[in-house]
Amino acid sequence: MDQKLQQEESLNNSMDGPMSKNAIMQVEVTADNASIDANTPDHNDNSNVRLMSGLRLYVCVAALVLATFIFALDVFIVNTIIDSVSASLGGYSKSGWLIAGYSLPNSLFSLIWGRTASLLGFQASMTLSIFIFEVGSIVSASATSMDNLIVGRVIAGVGGSGLQTLSLVIGSSIVEEKNRAMIVSIVMSAFAAASLIGPFVGGAFTTHVIWRWCFWINLPIGAVTALLFYFTYNPKRLSAASRFTSCFKSVKALSFEKLASWETYRCMGKNLLFRFDIVGFATGCAGVCLLLLGLTLGGEDDSWKSAIVICFLIVGFLLSVLSVVYDFYIFDKINPEPSNLSFRPMLVKGLLNNRFILLPNLVTCASAIAFSGYMLYSVQFFQLVMGSSAWNAGLHLIPLVIASIVSAIICGGIMKKTGQVKPLMISTVSILLIGGGVSTLLDNHSGNSMQIGVWILPGFGLGAALQCALISSQLQIDKESPNSEIELVEVTAFNSFTKSLGSSIGGVLCTAIFTSSLWSKINAVKLEGYYGKSTNEFVKYRLQHFDSRYSEASTIFSDSVTNVFWMALAFAAFAFVCSCLSSTNTVEIADKQKVHSDRDMSLISDSKLEA
Fold first, then answer.
1. CB–CB of 119/342 below 8 Å?
2. Under a CB-based contact definition with an 8 Å cutoff, are residues 183 and 175 in contact?
3. Residues 589 and 457 sit within 8 Å (Cβ to Cβ)
4. H, E, C per residue of 347-384
5. How many CA atoms lie within 13 A of 509 on its CB side?
6. Which residues fall in a coiled-coil region (predicted)?
7. I want to staple 190 with a disulfide (CB 3.0 to 4.6 A). Which of 65, 454, 478, 484 is the partner?
8. 212 to each of 67, 92, 191, 209, 420, how far by Cα in Å?
């Protein structure tokens, strides 16, 4: 009985509601249990109360779409302003961190935001992520140096990670399972829309106003998102006045005297260690960062034999493995409260041991890596091989983006109608794989039809594959389990983590392959004008001294881009294998016969009453 009560209390942590007098900073220290208790009666919403319909659902989904849109917009808008920012602030050698400084926190903090949502509730977590994102945007827009701008990008990346993760988590929780695929497809389509709009907005601001507006624009969009979400996501159906009063009472009830107590900080440390798994999180972050730094430095001037590159790769790999070992084996042995379900590692062994959860997330990660290659180096192909401007190169992404949006919406409708997930995932990953094979045929002799049509298949395959992988992961959760809502949050957060991690790894890995290939080919033929220069100077010289799409230099750049596409094809093939081994679970759909039967019984009952 006690264990059941503890499970119910832990489940309450995942529900929304105002944080009352037992919040994190308001510590109740007792002789028996000096821990922070976030389990309050206010969290006790059941899933039926949280489900939405009608206008409230549409407006809430619009808020989630806006949240995903501003997160994704910050990814793509920066690509077009790097040159202008570097000219304004200096520090061109650091400009790569404008992208990495945003993308790394996106992937690394995804699991933290999932845990924060389980502890604080969805509304408080979403509001906090918007606030952090807006602060990062303000720091970026007002930066006076490249270092300040990178700091702003890192802060925005932490908040953006919450926007991406929580939008998917909340979107999955506010509708029934049969409608989940459609909501997820709508939310995820915002990412594709931002990839289309971002370059145009960045180019317009940079050309006609100033690059700082690329960050100032986030403030009004973020404010509208926060207001729409606050007034529509209201699981307990409380009035605005009641919610403000509850928040005021919570703040008023804070006991600031306890901040001077040693027990308070001991309890906070305990919760950092076991609620947020700070050791596993920090170890994993360090490992991933060192691995990516090693890949980045190794790709510069073919420095793979450098001692520092080798050290970064080895230490990064060991720290990543240590993080998994700690979460899987060590955490449970040192956990002071094993029965407390809120004390759990970031990587939950029980979930990841389920191969039907792990496999679709591997599909997500591999597909994101492949898509990074197509997205980044399609632009490089048109600029460096075909001699297009940055604006015109971006226009060639339109078929890829439109195909991605269309496939996501179509896939959501098919899943809602048929309930099938695995056949759809295999089909769409197959399209991604075929499109990847076709992309390797692209070269400096390709015609216009090839240059445009080659991106339709990869875009169509990815848009639906990511959605199918997420739904397939969520279907493995036992809906009868008392921990089902916690597991829904954690599985969705892990999927967001694998997608962001795949994008980060893909960007770095593609650049390493491209620069290494370029370095070896140019030095092998001692190409005039390029030989003796660094890889960074290769690209700069090519843009300033473009000769012809049929020149020897153009052929070398084309072959180097093709090597990136071969790498993307390999990851697409891996995703295909994983999709074939995934679960056959299906989405629940309405039983038409049962609906008609219920309707007939209702009509018979009404006729009897009239008689």
1. yes
2. yes
3. no
4. CCHHHHCCHHHHHHHHHHHHHHHHHHHHHHHHHHHHHH
5. 25
6. none
7. 65
8. 20, 17, 22, 9, 46
Supply the pLDDT for residue 129: 92
CB 222 within 8 A of CB 100: no
Token pair of 80 as six digits: 């077009």
Inter-residue contact 157 to 129 (CB < 8 Å) = no
Nearest to 94 by CA among 147, 16, 49, 154: 147
Residue with tokens 């660094």: 534
Render 175-223 in DSSP notation, one character per residue: S-HHHHHHHHHHHHHHHHHHHHHHHHHHHHHHHHS-TTHHHHTHHHHHH
Please say whether the structural domain 347-604 has been given the CATH code 1.20.1250.20: yes
Q: Where are the domains of the chain?
A: 45-238, 347-604
Q: Report the distance separating Cα 218 and Cα 89, nearest Å.
A: 21
SS (H, E, C) 51-77: CCCHHHHHHHHHHHHHHHHHHHHHHHC
User: Alpha-carbon dihedral of residues 130, 134, 136, 139, nearest 10 degrees?
Assistant: -170
Query: What is the rounded distance in angstroms from the CA atom of residue 547 to the CA atom of residue 554?
Result: 8
Angle at 515 between CA 398 and CA 497, to 5 degrees: 60
Do residues 340 and 3 touch, judged by C-beta distance below 8 A?
Answer: no
| Cα–Cα dist 219/135, whole Å | 9
Supply 149's token pair: 């701008």
* CA-to-CA separations, 294 to 33, 283, 303, 363, in angstroms, rounded: 45, 17, 10, 25
Q: Which 3-state string (H, E, C) describes 283-309? A: HHHHHHHHHHHHHHHHHHHHCCCCHHH
Q: Cα separation of 114 and 165, whole Å?
A: 7
Rounded to whole angstroms, the Cα distance separating 45 from 572 reads 41
Per the structure block, which two tokens stand in for 361? 């997330």
pLDDT digits (tens, 9 = 90+) for 303-345: 677 888 889 889 999 999 999 999 888 988 888 888 777 788 8
Q: Is 404 helix (H, G, I), strand (E, B) or coil?
A: helix
Quick count: other Cβ atoms within 10 Å of Cβ 448? 7
- Give dist(CA 182, CA 175) in Å, integer: 10
- CA dihedral for 390, 396, 397, 398, sign (positive or negative): positive
Whether the Cβ atoms of residue 368 and residue 502 lie closer than 8 Å to each other: yes
Is the confidence at residue 41, as pLDDT, over 70? Answer: no
What's the whole-model pTM score? 0.75
Contact (Cβ atoms closer than 8 angstroms) between residue 10 and residue 486: yes
Rounded CA separation 460/443 (Å) = 22
* CATH class name, domain 45-238: mainly alpha
